Amino acid sequence: MKHTYEYPRAALTVDCVVFGFDSAQAALQVLLIRRGLAPFKDHWALPGGFVRVEETLDDAARRELEEETNLSTVFLEQLYTFGTVDRDPRERVVSVAYYALTKPTDHTAAASTDAAEARWFPVTEIPPLAFDHATILDTALVRLRGKLRYEPIGFELLPPKFTLTQLQRLYESVLGTPLDKRNFRKKVLSHNLLVPLKETHREGTHRPAQLFRFDPVRYEKLRKKGFLFEI
Amino acid sequence: MKHTYEYPRAALTVDCVVFGFDSAQAALQVLLIRRGLAPFKDHWALPGGFVRVEETLDDAARRELEEETNLSTVFLEQLYTFGTVDRDPRERVVSVAYYALTKPTDHTAAASTDAAEARWFPVTEIPPLAFDHATILDTALVRLRGKLRYEPIGFELLPPKFTLTQLQRLYESVLGTPLDKRNFRKKVLSHNLLVPLKETHREGTHRPAQLFRFDPVRYEKLRKKGFLFEI
DNA sequence: CCAAAAGTGTTCAGGCTACACCCATGT
DNA sequence: ACATGGGTGTAGCCTGAACACTTTTGG
Fold first, then answer.
1. What is the pLDDT of residues B156-185, one digit of tens each?
2. Considering only CA atoms, which of A110, A48, A44, A50 is closest in space to residue A74?
3. Nearest nucleotide by C1' from A202 CA?
4. Quick one: fold of A158-224?
5. Are B213 and B161 in contact (CB under 8 A)?
6. Left, alpha or beta for B116 (phi > 0: left; psi -120 to 50: alpha)?
7. Residue nearest to nucleotide C23 (CA to C1')
8. CA B67, C1' D18: Å apart?
9. What topology does CATH give the domain A11-150?
10. Are the CB atoms for B70 and B19 separated by under 8 Å?
11. Contact residues on chain A for B54, CB-CB shorter than 8 A
12. Model pTM score
């Protein structure tokens, strides 16, 4: 830690990779906003903005998320800090990237954003992005895939009540591989972290599916004893 | 991304958690420097300093490491960015933390630092640290433990030629649990990533130990095929 | 010949993988 | 009655855990 404070300073921003899951299409999606200003005017970009001196990084991420996409109370975690010198053509900007997981329940809110246009894109059909946001998105995807395997964060992308098939589709989309139905069910149920509800999910012309909810309290207890989720 | 540039800016620093491993004592160690200036004058702290506008974050971390500890060519990876508002009593400072792994071969260099006093501390005997550096160190330890289990970064803490017992002691110190000798050897050798050398390591009054080196080329090939290290 | 660490195989249990059919519903 | 997804059990294999003695050296 040096004692000199007189050098020019980099600007500091946060950018958020917001993931959502569309159960109908079994597709992992990302929320992007259309830029109204140069540089990269009319390009799609990650929601984000400048960090204020009186707010923490987490606060800044939540604030920008709320301002630009109307999303609140989502799972939010710091991802990585991007600091190459030329990532912003105007001047030096260092960006602390976050990734967020949203439940479909919250998506309606996300649609009604104020000024900028916001839209969900399947991760397989991402348009060209502003700045180094494609790199940030890639980093977030890698992290999400890794994390999904040993922490129960998949539930953050599903409604509070979900079927095992929805959960399996989610894992398959994120990990990019098909999974065996029987083995998948055996494994996720073996932890006793999924509570079967009295309700069923009726849809289409076939047998209704059992609905479950995730039990976060029980998970906390297990986790403190050194339990690893693993799928 | 907003278009306003006129707000006051946070200062941006990098801090490095430098790990080393003392085979003789089988102890994981951290390199700390004594602060010569307020605040926290005479406290121990992580090496670090301000990021210049014309250098990347990685460059800043390497530069500070070299300036303050004479260490170069070490394994260096971004850890997490710490941005609570009051972490520095003087003003708003956001710090991008890195962790570094050094081989004992480099340690001699580390001793001969210029002005500030630098010293290795076993992770079990860390003195009170300046700022939020204790939190940063904890975060680094958690990361190191996690990473050691599924990526071959342990070799970054050993000399280029090492014995299996040294490797086992390293894993035991970092993970904090004793490991079974036969099972450990079976597992690390099963990947064929350790090349036995023609030399042995003679020490003390007992049978000499076979020396090995890690084969990074072979590891790269395996990794690209989706191989996971795992111990 | 003694002390000290190096080196080496087998057995058992539990978890992972592969795999095919019946069930409940709406039309 | 038929089409559609929901739901279930078993057998073989492989991996991980437990465990004790011989070997080589220096003093």
1. 999 999 999 999 999 999 999 999 999 999
2. A110
3. C25
4. Arc Repressor Mutant, subunit A (1.10.10)
5. yes
6. beta
7. A207
8. 50
9. Nucleoside Triphosphate Pyrophosphohydrolase (3.90.79)
10. no
11. 85, 92
12. 0.94
